[in-house]
Design goal:
Blueprint: E1 13-17, H1 21-33, E2 36-40, H2 49-52, H3 84-97, E3 104-105, E4 110-116, E5 121-126, E6 131-134, E7 136-139, E8 161-164, E9 178-182, H4 186-195, E10 201-205, E11 212-214, H5 222-230, H6 233-239, H7 242-256, H8 261-277, H9 281-286, E12 299-301, H10 304-308, E13 313-316, E14 320-324, E15 327-330, E16 335-337, E17 340-343, E18 357-359, H11 366-369, E19 388-390, H12 403-422, E20 428-431, H13 433-448, H14 474-480, E21 489-492
Parallel strand pairs: 1-2, 1-7, 2-3, 4-18, 7-19, 8-17, 9-10, 9-17, 10-13, 11-12
Antiparallel strand pairs: 4-5, 5-6, 14-15, 15-16, 20-21
The structure holds NADP nicotinamide-adenine-dinucleotide phosphate (NAP).
The site of NADP nicotinamide-adenine-dinucleotide phosphate (NAP) has 27 residues, from helix 4.
């Protein structure tokens, strides 16, 4: 870990790309280390995904007390699961509390990053012209922030209001309207449960049904919040207990041992939820997936099955033929006349820091290095791109758990590499191509055997159909993040 006593005066110059959850984390940590850093944020506000997503029903399906920085527990959460604006307010509060805001340049979109081998430094170019030179780049630019529009004929011809979930507008006509909703991932399901009682009718276009994991939902009383304030160990008891962290570990064990008891338990929970919650047998069959639970990201919901049975909701399972000015035409000829069309159709999940152009050693580009799939060594560093740290980068763990937790572990790993720079023991670090190739070979072989690769489509799969994520257990990730294996790194003095 950082050995500040032996570090020479003069901090590392660092650029953090993105002021979302991971960028704010990196900023706090760099500030505590006494480094010289700037956060470049393309938008006018912090918050990343919580700034961009403002759709009705936006909730984080990770328990609120687990979706916080470990060093900044928060007694004030109103309920077990927090709503988007509450999470945004938490990050705003933390940003100010740790004095990060003056370090952020807003409306500063990074367009290019070029590694200068002779100087062992990055030149980071910002839209509009200026450039910043840095020893280190922290790519904290998020995963799910390039909205994906469905490839449906006539999409642009729709005459009513059309909106992607991540580009929500407050004036989207919902109340008393005929609304179409395409997509039933975590987003589409949350939107349905929030608008079904406001609309005249809601047609939910469901290409594939989803497994729904039943979860508890409850609010915290003023007395409980006062108790959390007085004794933060009560918060730890929620975030580190068997019900949450134990379940995460069993879940990741299940993902990697798909015929084992944990996965059987998850499948049974989901199956019973469907059987016991949906009263109409015809609707129940419409909602029954033909793939295994957890193959797509599990939907955690305490109310979806209840809300989808509301009389205003019609689940359309036919194939869409095309979109017309007045609505959606199905292949069987059915026409759904609509005022509003909501596209909860997900994101391009393979972009990461791109479209910024990243050029590493020998002029190689990240686009070329990632021609087959985005990849990073243990999800943090990239061969050929020295002093380049990714938080929530490719091949990291994904699932129904806190990505804050994952980013913190990745930071603890990366910080040990920064120590080498800070102590002037090395000028540059990057994983060797051999070590990375070995990692990817093992990862891909394991990924194909995870539940994500068991026969469904999802954003968890890369362009070749291989699960893009960490394929081992949560505990294996904790172990891997304890310390970098320095023999796997090219360290240039
Ligand atoms: P998503 O999981 O990628 O789901 C996209 C949906 O759109 C799917 O139902 C997909 O159907 C459908 N779709 C896409 N193209 C279509 C087309 N041409 N015709 C018909 N349907 C189409 O996207 P998301 O729901 O926005 O969620 C993305 C991720 O964001 C989640 O997995 C999660 O990681 C994160 N998220 C988290 C939370 C949270 O509470 N923590 C909440 C929201 C989102 P198919 O299944 O058939 O492809």
């Amino acid at each position: 870990m950082s050995d500040k006593t032996s570090a020479p005066a003069g901090g590392l110059k660092a650029v953090i790309v993105g002021a979302g959850m991971a960028g704010i984390l990196a900023a706090i940590k760099l500030k505590q280390r006494g480094e010289d850093f700037v956060v470049l944020e393309k938008a006018a506000r912090i918050g990343g995904t919580w700034r961009e997503n403002r759709y009705p029903g936006l909730t984080c399906d990770v328990p609120a007390h687990a979706y916080t920085y470990s060093f900044e527990p928060y007694a004030e959460w109103p309920a077990y699961y927090a709503k988007g604006p509450e999470i945004q307010a938490y990050f705003e509060m933390v940003t100010d509390k740790y004095g990060i805001r003056p370090h952020i340049r807003f409306n500063a979109e990074v367009t290019a990053l070029d590694w200068d081998e002779a100087a062992s430094q990055w030149t980071v170019r910002v839209a509009g012209g200026d450039a910043i030179v840095a020893d280190v780049v922290v790519a904290a630019s998020g995963v799910l922030h390039h909205p994906k529009l469905p490839d449906i004929a006539g999409l642009d011809s729709f005459a009513g209001t059309k909106v992607h979930s991540a580009q929500w507008r407050e004036d989207t006509p919902i109340d008393g309207k005929r609304v179409g909703l395409i997509g039933n991932g975590s987003t589409g399901v949350q939107i349905l449960t929030a608008i079904n009682k406001r609309v005249d009718k809601l047609v939910h276009f469901q290409r594939s049904p989803q497994w729904i994991m039943p979860v508890p939902y409850f609010t915290y009383s003023d007395e409980e919040r006062a108790a959390f304030r007085a004794d933060p160990s009560l918060i730890d008891a929620i975030r580190y207990n068997d019900e949450y962290l134990g379940a995460i570990k069993r879940f990741t064990d299940g993902i990697t041992d798909i015929d084992g008891p944990q996965m059987a338990e998850i499948e049974e929970y989901c199956r019973l939820n469907l059987e016991n919650s949906v009263r109409d047998p015809a609707l129940r069959e419409k909602l029954r997936p033909n793939y295994r639970a957890a193959c797509k990201r599990l939907i955690y919901s305490w109310c979806y099955y209840e809300e989808v049975q509301h009389p205003a909701v019609f689940v359309e399972t036919g194939r869409i033929e095309r979109i017309e000015p007045a609505g959606v035409r199905m292949v069987d000829g059915t026409f759904h006349e609509l005022d509003t069309l909501i596209l909860a159709t997900g994101f391009h999940a393979d972009r990461f820091i791109r479209p910024a152009g990243v050029t590493g050693t020998g002029g190689q580009t990240l686009d070329a290095a990632w021609a087959v799939r985005p990849t990073a060594y243990y999800a943090v560093t990239v061969p050929g791109f020295p002093n380049f740290i990714m938080l929530n980068g490719p091949t990291g763990p994904v699932g129904n758990f806190s990505l804050i937790d994952i980013a913190e572990m990745q930071w603890a790993y990366a910080e040990q590499l920064l120590d080498l720079l800070r102590q002037r023991k090395v000028r540059a670090f990057a994983p060797t191509a051999e070590a990375h190739a070995h990692y990817e070979e093992r990862r891909i072989a394991a990924a194909k055997k995870t539940i994500f690769g068991s026969g469904c489509t999802s954003w968890y799969l890369d362009a070749t159909g291989v699960p893009a994520s960490w394929p081992w257990s949560y505990d294996a990730f904790v172990d891997a993040m304890k310390a970098p294996v320095l023999e796997d790194y090219a360290l240039s003095a």
